[in-house]
Amino acid sequence: MASSSFSSLSLTLLCFLLILIVSSSVAQTSSRPKALLLKVTKDAKTLQYVTQVSQRTPLIPVKLTLDLGGDYMWVNCERGYTSSTYRPAPCGSAACQLLNTTSCTTECYSAPAPDCYNNTCGHGPTNSVANTGTSGQLGADVFAIQSTDGKNVLEVVTDPRLYFVCGNNFIEAGLASGVTGMAGLGRTGASLPAQLSSYFRFDPKFALCLSSSTRSSGVVFFGNGPYTLLPNVDASSSLTYTPLIINPVTENGFLGDASPKYFIGVTSIKINDKRVPINESLLSIDAEGYGGTTISTADPYTVLETSIYSAVVAAFVKAMPKNVQRVPSVAPFGACFSSNNISSTRLGPGVPSIDLVLQSKSVYWRIVGANSMVEVKKNVLCLGFVEARTDFRPRFAVVIGGHQIEDNLLQFDLSTSRLGFSSSLLGRSTTCANFNFTSTA
Ligand SMILES: *[C@@H]1O[C@H](CO)[C@@H](O)[C@H](O)[C@H]1NC(C)=O
Ligand SMILES: *[C@@H]1O[C@H](CO)[C@@H](O)[C@H](O)[C@H]1NC(C)=O
Ligand SMILES: *[C@@H]1O[C@H](CO)[C@@H](O)[C@H](O)[C@H]1NC(C)=O
Ligand SMILES: *[C@@H]1O[C@H](CO)[C@@H](O)[C@H](O)[C@H]1NC(C)=O
Ligand SMILES: *[C@@H]1O[C@H](CO)[C@@H](O)[C@H](O)[C@H]1NC(C)=O
Q1: Final residue belonging to a domain, choices 196, 225, 254
Q2: Are residues 119 and 90 in the same domain?
Q3: What percentage of the chain exceeds 90 in pLDDT?
Q4: Are 267 and 370 part of one and the same domain?
Q5: Ligand 4 pocket member 7 (CB < 6 A)
Q6: 338 CB within 6 A, ligand 4
């Protein structure tokens, strides 16, 4: 009796030890990272947010402009694409279904290359900066990316089959110098966040933290937090959440598809706590997919529908303290001021706060001076919002642009369909340029 209970105890112990050994060796080889990251640099000339990925065999660095609302990654294959591991996606395969595409090239008569295989599905990659598009084939290749524990840079891990679409010279035009494609982070099964979380099996979440400086880099995290910024701030703590809304009509792509862009439910706009008089029905998405509020890394400044733009500029000018002198406007902005009586941080009292009010009065995204004002020249600060093109009806009422999301953490959670936002991290004494890229655990 005693000996049998002893042996069952030692068996349990042995099993426990075995599990310990197995799990620690899995942890060491770490084929399952908890999170990944990409470094993001703001290009001074184009104001695009540029990242660099590693792709193909042998691996080469590929510079891409970040496209928050982009369907998937595309690279310019017309520049030449050499890799021993490229695999075209056969028509009807699961990969083609990721893109929800029925387009199929049955026969292609040029030399076999990543943009010309037989029986391969394709899609229409777009350049959301230049507003151009083309058609291209879908295929997969090796993709290598740095893993992280949210605080340190860990080893490079590899996804052997990350799907992307081949673009060409035409849609590359307009991208920052050295950039040969776009990194789509949008709401599709084929975007980088969707593919990386599915392959590495972590939660389908990613977070954007863009630096306002062109000299120091921001970061995109894939996976759960912490997202630790120096000195020691977990930017994923104290987020405010709002539902992400689906726009059922895509603006380019196939009829019947939903938009790959992320939308939030702004219900009104307040400046210094006073409601701006606008036609609030423009803020909802109509049956044709028009209206609503989206977020874009392809627009350097927030774009507002004309009537909203006029109302916001008027209310902002009115709310500016009387000792701040208005000066002639500098295009593309409509309200500029002498910076003399505005504190250098643009955070202190003075610059009116702009609140995007969300699902209830108590939930709002506050845009402070650091995110509303743009220094256009010495001593001149402008309200960094621009008017939507007026020659036709703009697609969206509000497109929150790059300047307004810099030094804010935005976490997109695709499983719960919600956005977590931090408002300016300057208020927490850190910035998006404060991830320690030189650290290693
Ligand atoms: C595609 O199929 C056609 C007809 O069978 C053939 O002539 C052509 O070489 C093939 N192209 C490629 C890229 O394999
Ligand atoms: C895929 O296409 C079908 C048919 O056009 C459409 O009903 C569905 O909403 C699409 N799915 C997505 C995710 O866009
Ligand atoms: C408000 O905008 C909606 C949607 O564009 C439009 O149908 C309506 O006529 C507008 N209302 C006013 C008072 O302008
Ligand atoms: C700054 O504020 C002071 C005191 O209110 C005022 O006298 C001065 O004209 C202001 N200067 C500018 C450039 O607005
Ligand atoms: C960044 O990490 C490295 C390596 O762990 C460390 O030596 C360095 O002090 C860190 N930088 C800062 C500013 O803390």
Answers
A1: 225
A2: yes
A3: 83
A4: yes
A5: no
A6: yes
Q: Which two tokens stand for residue 112?
A: 């076999």
Q: Rounded to the nearest whole angstrom, what is the distance from the C-alpha of residue 90 to the centroid of ligand 1?
A: 14
The tokens of 69 are what?
């609302």
303 and 220 belong to one structural domain: no
> Which of the pair, 115 or 283, is modelled with greater confidence?
283
Ligand 3 mean position, distance from CA 278 (Å): 10
CATH code where residue 41 lies = 2.40.70.10
Same domain flag for 208 and 291: no
pLDDT value, residue 346: 62
Q: Is the CB of 279 under 6 A from ligand 3?
A: yes
* pLDDT for residue 43 is more than 70: yes
Total number of domains constituting the chain: 2
Q: Choose the weakest-confidence range: 54-68, 99-113, 298-312.
A: 99-113
Instruction: Please state, in angstroms and rounded to a whole number, the distance separating the CA atoms of residues 350 and 372.
Output: 12
Residues 196, 159 contacting (CB under 8 angstroms):
yes
User: What local confidence, expressed as pLDDT, does residue 2 receive?
Assistant: 37
Q: Is residue 112 lining ligand 1, measured as CB closer than 6 Å?
A: yes
pTM of this prediction? Answer: 0.91
Structural domain including 270 reads 233-434
Probe ligand 2: pick from 100, 101, 247, max atoms within 8 Å of CB? 100
Dihedral over Cα of 19, 24, 29, 35: its sign:
positive
Task: List the residue whose alpha carbon is closest to atom 4 of ligand 4.
Answer: 323
CA-based nearest residue to 177, from 288, 50, 310, 292: 50
